[in-house]
Amino acid sequence: MSFTFTPNIDELDNNALAGVLYLDKTSKHLRKILIRNTDEINPAFSVTLTKFELELSFDVFEGLVMPAHTSTTIMGTAAIFKSLDSVQTVTYSDYKILNNPQT
């Protein structure tokens, strides 16, 4: 089951962004949030992003929805000559419950 939404990211033109939220149809748990651009984005002077994609994936651990994976893809140019191509991926695993957490 999926829902569309309009992201609100302060540094970006939100009219050029679209979001989709995915839920597991049976458990209703959050599975993924995807935000991507629908048009070029200019987040700073002389910076143009032709592709922006943020993906947040979730798994269930001990009945709780926990982050499993984040991925950010950026493509574009800075100062006309400099190419921006970046893919960052982070995977979260091996969750353990703390009996006496330090706060």
Explained architecture:
This protein is 0% helix and 61% strand. With 103 residues, the chain is an all-beta fold. It has one domain. Strands 1, 2, 3, 4, 5, 6 and 7 form a 7-stranded antiparallel sheet that branches. Strand 5 and strand 6 form a beta hairpin. It is globular, with a radius of gyration of 17 Å. 9% of the residues are buried.
Gist?
This protein has 103 residues and is mainly beta.
Gyration radius from CA atoms, angstroms: 17 Å
Global morphology: globular
> Would you report the number of β strands?
7
Which stretches are poorly predicted, pLDDT < 50 over at least 5 residues?
Answer: none
Oligomer: single chain
